[in-house]
Design goal:
- This protein is an alpha/beta fold.
- It has 2 domains: about 90 residues, no CATH class; about 50 residues, no CATH class.
- Helix content is about 55%, strand content about 25%.
- The protein is built from 5 helices and 8 strands.
- It has a two-stranded parallel ribbon. Strands 2-6 form a two-stranded parallel sheet. The chain has a two-stranded parallel sheet with strand order 3-7.
- α1 crosses α4, α3 runs antiparallel to α4 and α4 crosses α5.
- It is elongated.
- The relative contact order is 0.15.
Length: about 150
Amino acid sequence: MEITIVSVASTLIFKALEKSGEKLGEVLLEKIGELRNLVREKFKSKGVEGILMQAEKNPTEANKQMFQTVLEMQVSQDEIFANDLRALVDELKSNSQVNQIFLKDVDVLGSAEIGDVRQITTSGSSVNQEAATNLKLGGNLKIGNVKQQN
């Protein structure tokens, strides 16, 4: 169980670094920040903050593995930290952002016809739905019914 929490926490931290220039939901970004701060404070209190900094600065597989090993050790030794980490990971999993995009950055030079389109999400998370944005039309475009629903 603890290894799963560590694995998810590690993945979230490193994915956030990869996507820092991309649009992440504010709530998601804030929670990932809380997760990173929680881990940073724990590592700092144990004198191993350099491992986190190295993994963030240079996220090679070896650095990520070292980070994850130290995180696993801290989780196994500190039940309060493990519970705090688990709570944040659970919040992040429930607050994930859903992006549904239909016809973005499309060039239509001749004629095009698209049938009915439905974008539906049942998630209670942050949802971004886009339809027919940044189109360049040099002909005719016919789209059936478009339904976006959350």
